[in-house]
Write a structure and sequence with these properties.
The chain is 21% helix and 23% strand. The protein has 134 residues and is α+β, with helices and mostly antiparallel strands. The protein has one domain: 4-Layer Sandwich (Deoxyribonuclease I, Chain A), CATH 3.60.10. A 4-stranded mixed sheet has the order 1-2-6-3, covered by helices on one side. A two-stranded antiparallel ribbon has the order 4-5. α1 links the parallel β1 and β2. The chain is globular and about 45 Å long.
Length: 134
């Protein structure tokens, strides 16, 4: 299956600029949806550290009105965290699909809690499976 994978790293909340993250989300959604519409049947996803949690304006903008589908949405909230900030888990890394019909295999989204001692990142990986045949 052909695929387009857009990697993103939205502005950090350090020296916060929530308007910029919202603008990044709106532009990313437009680009990803435009590519998906122009390439029917091609798996099209946006993935990365978006520095915002579900329910925030940037995530709402990505998902609004049948926009992109956030695969971890099906996980219980306490299992969605990909980063620990001040002792609390936050879901700030996301994997969103624009493909129609969706290729995401329901029930395959997972966050793997790896030790920081053995990982090169301070974020936990979010994974999901997508079907080559739909």
């Amino acid at each position: 299956m052909r695929r387009f994978v857009f990697a993103a790293h939205f502005r950090s909340k350090a020296n916060d600029d929530p308007g910029r993250r919202l603008a990044e989300a709106q532009a990313a959604r437009d680009i990803v949806q435009r590519v998906a519409a122009a390439q029917p049947g091609v798996l099209t996803v946006l993935a990365g550290d978006l520095n915002d949690v579900p329910g925030s304006p940037p995530l709402e903008a990505l998902e609004a009105n049948g926009g992109l589908f956030r695969v971890a949405k099906e996980l219980p909230v306490d299992q969605q965290a990909t980063y620990v900030f001040n002792g609390s888990g936050e879901a700030i890394d996301h994997l969103l699909e624009a493909t129609e019909p969706p290729a995401y295999v329901e029930g395959t989204s997972a966050v793997t809690r790896v030790s920081r001692a053995t990982s090169s990142s301070d974020h936990w990986p979010l994974t999901a499976s997508f079907s080559a045949t739909r």
